[in-house]
Design goal:
122 residues, 4-stranded antiparallel beta sheet, 0% helix, 59% strand
């Protein structure tokens, strides 16, 4: 009942920047926690950044100071601003959105995006 559409991935040179977007649509009453994860070839999916309903953020040590998670509640959209990109940031990035459906009675949801490829290479 909730769909996530990711965009913004691509090929970028080391030191470059990208901004990922994740637009949520569907029968949403409210979005609570949001996050970005990534999975590199041959590696397990790892948590990159999260933001709570209150706006508190947390980041993986490997991206602190370079990545920033943000959200636009009016647009039900989550962003990941990435700067100073490194080859080791190459991965498929997935957004994760949790919240409450506009149903009666209300039910929680926890949805994942389809993933967007980020490649950092010269």
């Amino acid at each position: 009942q909730v769909q996530l559409v990711e965009s913004g991935g691509g090929l970028v040179q080391p030191g470059g920047s990208l901004r990922l977007s994740c637009a949520a649509s569907g029968n949403i009453f409210v979005i609570t926690a949001v996050g970005w994860h990534r999975q590199a070839p041959g590696k397990q999916r790892e948590l990159v950044a999260t933001m709570s309903s209150g706006g508190s953020t947390s980041y993986a040590d490997s991206v602190k100071g370079r990545f920033t998670i943000s959200r636009d509640n009016a647009k039900n959209t989550v962003y990941l601003q990435m700067i100073s990109l490194k080859p080791e940031d190459t991965a498929v990035y997935y957004c994760n959105v949790a919240g409450i459906l506009r149903t009666a009675p209300q039910h929680p949801f926890d949805s994942w995006g389809q993933g967007t490829q980020v490649t950092v290479s010269s």
